[in-house]
Structures are given as structure tokens and as C-alpha cells.
Write a structure and sequence with these properties.
Alpha-Beta Plaits; single chain; six-stranded mixed beta sheet
């Protein structure tokens, strides 16, 4: 093959992944000669599990030129300041994993190290008292971040809750307006050349769509990467045993909380996602530890408003494809892997996959170096997120059901074992490469799950204890006062 540019990008499958890809490709790849084609069938439903996101979605929308107010109206969206975890440590606890930072670093030392040393002093309070997003969430209030570094609002971050189906439709309208072409039809065959590259897909009605680069957004089936290219699936269910979910919408309930709630149950957990027009609910559970009927009973017993539709079941397996890019096929979303929505990372993995694809965009040679780097980067993303989700299960004191006894005693990945050991020793957390979750996120979940370090970084002792304690007390008061000045979330 020559180094000539790719002229035809074909996206197989719609839904959130497909239309995110189409909207981004139409915005950044359409040079007037390149075509963007998306193939989907109205007869094939989409999963649409995720309706909660993390802060990088704001950057994705901004790069597409999306107006936030228009987006929120179109998708029923609401602000999200973090996730409240209920019952994950001993069955009676609750804590918030907030977006943004904890306090302010002093003399280059991570804030949580200062807090660890002084946490038993009078007036210091909990680590949550220093996260503006957590303080605002507890008060059911919201305001956008401030660019002024002196303001407590400078440490606040937020994301969105939204209707994933409405988001896909919103992106579709933008993508088509910018030149992307949708083709309706069910794919019945795939054609490959002598090198194994996909050259075309065949549709019902004796139609063909040819392409140079194929983006597989076909969901769990992984039609191109898995079925056609033969890329194997790496099963992580021994670490993440939840393999089913029941989803049910309910009437909108008040107040409109600016955070997602994840409530632990006997064999899994339940999500609660507030939207403008309804509340999204679901029960993620492990079928090896409960049956479908009991899982539905638990879900329906813990709703806080009336259901508006029957519960819908989803089945999945935690893990990822051994490669996300093989030949001229790149998989996004469920076609590449699945990690349960505990930390709202599904849409982010689509987003980061697109970002890295555009950063390593190939020509018709499809060189190994670009493909290998993409696969390495995406592997690192999946592994780091996997470990962060496992942490919620493994760091628990619960032993009230077989499910919790299993996850609290299961062998952990070495990458996570090292991270926990470092934190338990002196509260140290290191962020590697472009790992998604920053130090404040790891600190929030480690402490929230009851992992209390035996000590702290001894460098903290070089600071004047009384001066630092006074700074923390003032900081805590500033955050509480700021929250009371913010408007109610809804």
C-alpha cells in the first residue's frame, strides 16, 4: 500500500459510540475529500447503560463546538459533582467521590498529606470538607467553577447526567449537518482483502459499503474486531463478577441531586441518576450470587419514585479485547471492552479512544508503530480504570453475603496491590502516564472505603503545625460558606 491518505471512514453501528465517532470525525477529519459513513439498523437496539459521565466530557463537547445550555436542553441533562457511595464499607456508611481537588497544596505537598497529619486536631473535619464539589453536593447546590485561584470554586469540577439515547440523537443531527452520511441497514457480511483488511460490508438488499478505515461500534457483538478480525476477549470477571444489570426509569423525584448515587446491595449495587425529565435507576449484580427475580425485587424495593416502564435486563462480561486496533479496524465502546458503570467511565473510554485515534491517525499503509502505540495507550487506560473499580469491592469490611466475602478476599491485580500498599504505608499515590483518575480520586475512594494510612509523608513535619492547622480550619470554613452562597441544583 502507498502512503496515500484515507478517503473513506466507515462507522459500523450507531448508539452513543457510533454517533460520538461520527460527530468527531465530521468535525476533525472531513477535509472536503474524505467521506464519513455510519451504518446502523433501526431493528437493532442499543444498550445505553451509561447516563452519567465524568468531567472530560465537557472538553469533548467543547471541541465539537457544542453550546452547554443547548446540550442540556436536548438531552434532559443535569450537573454532576461526583458519586455518592452508600453501604460499600460496612453496609451503613456513605461517602462521596467528588470531582475536582481537595483543598490547596501547601509548599508543594499534596493536601491530603497535610490532612493525614492533622486529622485528629480540633476543627479539622473529614477530607470531604475540603472538596468543594463534595460540600456543594451535600448541600444540593451547584455553581460552575471559578477561574480565580483564590476562590474555593476554583477546585470544583463537574460533569453531566443525561439521557444517552437523546445524546446520540443530538450528535447525529450535528454529524449529518457537517456531512456525515447515515446508511440504514443490517449488515449480513464482511469482505476482506489478502492482507486481512476489511474492504467492505454487505447489507441486506444486495448493497455494499466500501471503506478504508472501519470503526467498529457494533456493541458487545464486536462484529468487525472480534468476529471478523478474530481478536480475542480478555475476561476480567474473576475481579469484577457482576455480569448483569436491570435498568428501570422512574418519575423525576425531588430534590434534583447534583450527584450520582451508587448503593451497595447483597450481590451488587444500584445506581440512581437524576435527569430533568426522569430518574434513571438500575441494579448491577452477579448472577453467580443471586437470581434475576431476586435482583429485580431488590431494585424495585429501593426506588424513590414510581416506575414509568418495565425493568430491562442487560447481560455483559467485564473485560476487553486483546487489541483495540487490528489491521484497518478500530473498536470503540462495547465492541472493544466493557467495565461496569460504577465510576461512569463508559462514555469516557469512547471519547479517549477517539482522541488517541485522531492523534495517531494512519494513512493507507496502516503502520505497526501507530497501531501498537494506540493499543498500548488504550490498554493502559482500561487497566487503570479496571483497578480503580476493583478497589471499591476489594476494600470493604462487609462479610454479610457470599458476594462480599468473595470480593474482599479475591486475589488482586499486582498493579492495584502495589497502589494500596503504598497508600496504606504513608498515604502516597502516584499517577502514571495519562491515567484517568488523579490523586484526589484515589484518595477519596481509599479513605472512603476505610483504608487509613499508618502514617504520612515525613516531609510534612518540616512545616509549622499550628500555621498549617490554622490554614486548614480557615479553608474548611471558606468551603462551607461558599456552598451556602451557591444556588440550589434544581
Amino acid at each position: 500500500m502507498s502512503g496515500e491518505p484515507i478517503g473513506r471512514v466507515v462507522i459500523v453501528g450507531g448508539g452513543t459510540a457510533g454517533w460520538m465517532a461520527a460527530a468527531a470525525a465530521a468535525r476533525f477529519l472531513d477535509d472536503g475529500r474524505r467521506t464519513i459513513t455510519l451504518i446502523e439498523s433501526d431493528a437493532i437496539g442499543t444498550v445505553g447503560v451509561g447516563e452519567a459521565t465524568i468531567p472530560p466530557i465537557r472538553g469533548f463537547n467543547a471541541r465539537l463546538g457544542i453550546d452547554e445550555a443547548e446540550f442540556l436542553r436536548a438531552t434532559g441533562g443535569t450537573p454532576k459533582l461526583g458519586i455518592e457511595f452508600v453501604g460499600w464499607t460496612d453496609g451503613r456508611d456513605r461517602y462521596i467521590h467528588p470531582f475536582g481537588t481537595h483543598g490547596r497544596d501547601i509548599e508543594g505537598l499534596n493536601f491530603h498529606q497535610l490532612w493525614l497529619k492533622l486529622r485528629h486536631e480540633a476543627g479539622i473535619g473529614s477530607i470531604e470538607d475540603y472538596a468543594m464539589s463534595a460540600v456543594a453536593a451535600r448541600a444540593h447546590r451547584f455553581a460552575p467553577p471559578s477561574p480565580d485561584p483564590r476562590s474555593p470554586l476554583s477546585g470544583l469540577e463537574y460533569a453531566y447526567h443525561f439521557d444517552a439515547g437523546l445524546y446520540a440523537g443530538f450528535l447525529r443531527s450535528r454529524a449529518e449537518a457537517q456531512g456525515a452520511v447515515r446508511v440504514e441497514g443490517r449488515i449480513v457480511g464482511v469482505e476482506q482483502d489478502e492482507h486481512g483488511h476489511v474492504t467492505a460490508v454487505r447489507l441486506e438488499g444486495d448493497r455494499r459499503v466500501e471503506g478504508d478505515l472501519f470503526i467498529d461500534c457494533s456493541g458487545f457483538r464486536s462484529m468487525l474486531l472480534g468476529e471478523t478480525m478474530g481478536v480475542s476477549f480478555e475476561d476480567w470477571s474473576h475481579w469484577l463478577p457482576c455480569d448483569r444489570a436491570l435498568a428501570v426509569p422512574t418519575e423525576r423525584s425531588a430534590p434534583l441531586l447534583p450527584y450520582t448515587r451508587a448503593t451497595a446491595h447483597g450481590a451488587g449495587w444500584q445506581w440512581r441518576i437524576p435527569l430533568q425529565h426522569r430518574t434513571g435507576n438500575g441494579h448491577v449484580y452477579a448472577s453467580a450470587f443471586t437470581d434475576d427475580a431476586e435482583a429485580e425485587r431488590v431494585l424495585m424495593a429501593h426506588l424513590d419514585s414510581q416506575p414509568t416502564a418495565p425493568a430491562r435486563q442487560l447481560r455483559f462480561k467485564a473485560g476487553r479485547r486483546a487489541q483495540m486496533w487490528k489491521g484497518n479496524v478500530v473498536a470503540l465502546g462495547l465492541a472493544g471492552g466493557f467495565l461496569e458503570p460504577l465510576e461512569s467511565t463508559s462514555i469516557h473510554l469512547i471519547q479517549t479512544g477517539l482522541s488517541k485515534l485522531f492523534g495517531l491517525f494512519p494513512d493507507m499503509r496502516f503502520t505497526d508503530i501507530e497501531r501498537d502505540e494506540y493499543n498500548r495507550l488504550m490498554s493502559d487506560q482500561y487497566v487503570a480504570i479496571r483497578d480503580f473499580i476493583i478497589l471499591h469491592y476489594a476494600a470493604t469490611m462487609r462479610d454479610d453475603t457470599p458476594f462480599w466475602r468473595y470480593v474482599r478476599t479475591m486475589p488482586l491485580p499486582d498493579t492495584l496491590t502495589r497502589k494500596i500498599a503504598l497508600f496504606r504505608e504513608k498515604g502516597r499515590i502516584f499517577r502514571y502516564d495519562d491515567e484517568l483518575f488523579a490523586i484526589p480520586s484515589w484518595v477519596a475512594v481509599m479513605l472512603g472505603q476505610g483504608i487509613i494510612p499508618d502514617g504520612y509523608d515525613p516531609v510534612v513535619d518540616a512545616l509549622d503545625t499550628e500555621r498549617v492547622a490554622g490554614a486548614l480550619r480557615r479553608m474548611r470554613g471558606d468551603y462551607a460558606a461558599m456552598a451556602q452562597q451557591m444556588p440550589m441544583a434544581g
